[in-house]
Amino acid sequence: MLLVKNSRLSIVIALGLVLAFAACKKGWKDHNDSTDPNLGMNLITAIKADPEAAQFVTLLTKTGYDKVLEGSKSYTVWVPNNSAIASLPANVLADTNLLKSFVGNHITNGSITSGIAGIQRVPMLNGKFTNLNNLQLDSASIVKSNKYCSNGLYNLMDKFVPVKDNCWQWLLNSTGFTSSKNFFLSLNYTYFDSASATQTGVDPNTGQPVYKPGTGLSTRNRFLDNVMNVSDESGEYTFIILNDASFAAENSKLTPWFKTTSVDTTNNLAGSWLVKDLAVKGSYAAAQLPDTLVSQYGVKVPVDKTKILSSIKTSNGWVHTMSQVNFTLANKFPPIIIEGENPNGFAADRTAQLLFRNRLNPGTGQNFKDILMQNYSFASYWVRYLARNVNSMRYNAFWVAVNDVQTTPLWTQRLAVDSTNTVGNFAYITVPYQNYTEVSLGQFTVPRYKNLDLYLIGANTSSSSGGSVSIALDYIKLVPAF
Amino acid sequence: MKSISIKKKFFVSAMVLVGLGLGISSCKKVLDKQPETFLTTGQVYRDIYDADAAIIGVYGKFMGLAKQYIVLNELRADLMQVTDNADAFMREINQHTVTANNPYADPTPFYTVINSCNDVLKNLKIMLADNKIKQGEFDQRYSDIGALRSWIYLQLGIHWGDQVRYVTNSLETLASAKDVANYPVVTFDQLLDSLVNFTSTLPYTRPYPMGASINTGLVTNVDGSNTRRFFIDKFALLGDLNLWKGNYNKAATYYRSIMEPVLNGYDADNANGLYTIGGDQYYQQSRQAFASVADNRDLCVGYIRFKEADQGSLIDNNTQGWRSMFARGQDNLWMQQWLWVLPFNSNFAPENPFVNMFSNSGGSYLLKPSKEAMDKWNSQTQANGFPFDARGNFTYRTLNGQPVIVKYLYNYLDASSFIPTNPLQKPGQWFLNRVSNVHLHFAEAANRDGKRKLAAALLNQGISTTYDPTPGVTGRDVTTIMNTLSEPYPYNFDARNGETPRYRGDWHRNAGIRGCARVNPAAIVGDSTLSIESALLNESALELAYEGHRWADLVRISIRRNDPAILANAVFNKLSKDGNPGAAAARTKLLDRKNWYLPFK
Q1: Whole-complex ipTM
Q2: Domains and CATH numbers, chain A
Q3: Which of B184, B208, B407, B410 has the lowest tally of Cβ within 10 angstroms?
């Protein structure tokens, strides 16, 4: 076998030798070796060597960030050039904390390449986020990009990026919007966090930890917690702040629908209802604002640009102060829908007769869920529903109750508000066979803002067969009548 | 040579010398040892135990086809779709743009198993001639492996069409494998003829018999699984071959053999009397029995009794109802439905490929249900008015926001949390055939044989209800209703269920495929033959999705009706509903029958 392949083998050996010789030449080393001297030094050395960065280097040294940039982690630095630093306000230079935050506003963890199209939100070392888009960091242009060093890279820019307040900080530092500001501040509350509290011992009776008084307490805000966290640096928001006159005008439009026993409560509720639609996700500059914003609750927010007093770019979006946001009441108070399959209570346990169903509406082709109970042996059996935070106003009531189980007998059922009483409530209505449309029940008035109990009540007879005593409900709809 | 120095020449010569030395020394007897981990031909096929081992070995090899089988039969058709994780080859299969090097379009793995079958068949004959096994033992084993080979050839025909090489000789040597004369190319029709001829002459068509004790012969317990449903069902194969061929009466006759289980050897384990007349197994084995509404110990879609209209009462667990057939152990209920299932054990090769294909937790999640498939389930209405087919809920589930085919994952995922019980252990089963498929195929054959009402009965609400002019009335004399006894075999069914006089016909529990699934009967409109056939085709999708029957069903019915649009439109609907830009191109392509087939190389 070997003899036959002899000639081929020789060629292989010869080729191998040629390759071996070639590998000894110096050319390969030249070809593979890096020619960039920067790669041999770390960031701080490289930046120090760049004459355009001299001013920024002094700030790095002053704030101690020079030590950080010597580290083994990688960083990306956007260095404002000397002329940019020259225009730095004196108060920043004078205040160590401000200066540290300013320098940190130009450094991020990790290697981020500039010059890539598309907005990238970069987390800076001072906790702020800045938008990087192609060769633009915020409003500064990158003039020398992506200088690689052993522990990251730096860029040189024609301007610095000032440390801005976020939307929430801007409101807190603002002057002249007292009503808005005071209202938002009134939503503050004190929160106890056991993780940050100092534990001093354990209660011998309960076994619960005992904390040092005054520790673990922090201030939180209900608007930030529950509506929109406009103090979050990583996102972008558009936040509308009303001036005193318009805040009062809109608030007074809402107060009649929040009647309670206390003026303060009413004002607080109306104010909350007003401001909940004043913050939306996304960064809209004045020029980009549409005629109508839609809040996260689906409420249309009319934006009349002539009523904008000022527009402020913040570190996490835009604040627009306005002299008017004229909400339409019908938009502010959408109909309340209570689904039949979400009951809150029953007259008695009838689990065996309780059916939560999947159904097809043949008219619309849409699927829906509903509740059906039959033959439950209970006179005037009721299913209770809870409508939360119902306003003090008149409502037109509708329901969709589908009987698709029997053409005869047809059953009757009624809706009761606040109590199961017959007097003062709606009368019994026959549920026709296969009616999938909304049935108007009439009007009722809610005197005070509250959580409202609604009762779906079956016929006032008891039966365990035949289906003559039944109740069904797809949903109840309450439409404000103003 | 001249350019090489003397040194090199010496080196080459040395190599040659060493080579020669090795050549000479290998002639010495001291090194002439048999390999320790391989058997040579003389060491196997010595007795019945070797024969059984060879058969189990062939099935072990056969299990390696599971992944390719499902990809070809489901991903080519309309119910399965690739995910973003799928590789380029799966995408090609999905949109019918297969290129030459696609491993899923390679028939070689099928031929590997065929070659093993041929080898076993040949040696079984030799063993019989040498009196190493008895005639009866030979018949059972030869028929089993012969049928398995026919089944694989039918698969080749379905996917490679007129290009299949029909090899029935054992190719033991390299020379015979290289001899082109051993590979006659046959058309699909010729292949079907050959397969029908060969398979119908097999001497033994019943399941392997069980001895006095269960642990004899090939029917035994292996690695925690019983092998009763391990082997191919030969009646079902013969039915299928004749159904493809258009021999409808013959096909129905073969299927009926399965549907008369007690006469045909499906009842051997009758230790507890369940298979005697009156026993549950007797009335339920192979009969697509109605639901046990009181306790839901059945394989039907069910709800808690008297709360049938409540969405929360759907029976959705691994021990009751329709879902449980894919999850439960091999108990009596399981035996009633399953005909051919190969278990994957996490402790042994071959590895279960389905976890990797389907699961998004511990698997690669390569394949998912198509929108078209979901629409099929969601366009059904259940007896309680719910606007969806619950079989869809059991076939796929939304897990972590992704639709996951769970039919194959019930042994891998926790029954209620759907998190893997143990991500490192991937038990599962390859579901090859079951009674519902046989009923649908029987109905397909009966429908074409002019027994349309019977076909519709087996599809929809069962024989008893269909042949009853006033269903639901009690206290009648049912002597003349609820049966088709006036029909000749294989269409004579007795489903009578009455009290005075008392009747409990063998088929009184038959509920029909849709009756068992609690969905309303499929409407029969227009030409009843075509309408019923289309309804059967659709039902096969709803009932048997992802069990490897879909592509074959589409091809068979498209060929029978000479209407490529049935297949082309099905694929088009899948691709277009999932937003695949190649949908229209695939439709145009598939309107030509020769494009249904994969390139044979």
Answers
A1: 0.76
A2: 37-157 (2.30.180.10), 167-187+227-332 (2.30.180.10), 336-480 (2.60.120.260)
A3: B184
